[in-house]
């Protein structure tokens, strides 16, 4: 595994994951307290969203920075293709 320097948004990804971690702890406590399933499902949904968003930010950041470094200078047509590829990843 290659170790890379942190990307621009690694702090944002870490913050989202810490939020998810806090939600998970809350869910476990709620389960111990025998809270209603609806409450548990809502909190689980929040955890899923936080993790999903963290993954999305990580992937987009990687594409934005590592792809640029890998391809270097490009002619206008290839630059448009790369930009379009980067744009479509926002819909992941």
Describe this structure in words.
Helix 1 packs antiparallel against helix 2. The protein has 92 residues and is an all-alpha fold. The relative contact order is 0.13. It comes from Achromobacter mucicolens. This is Metal-sensing transcriptional repressor.
Biggest sheet architecture: none
Helix content: over 70%
Shape designation: elongated
Element order, helices and strands? HHH
Strand content: under 5%
Number of helices: 3
Broad structural category: mainly alpha
Beginning-to-end CA distance, first to last residue: 25 Å
Overall residue-averaged pLDDT value? 87
Q: Tell me how many strands there are.
A: 0
Uncertain segments are none
The quaternary state of the protein chains shown equals: single chain
Rg value: 18 Å
Main attributes of the structure:
single chain; 92 residues; mainly alpha; 3 helices; Metal_Tscrpt_repr_sf
Helices and strands, with pairings:
Layout lengths: L9 H23 L4 H35 L4 H13 L4
Helix pairs in contact: 1-2
Short description:
The protein has 92 residues and is mainly alpha-helical.
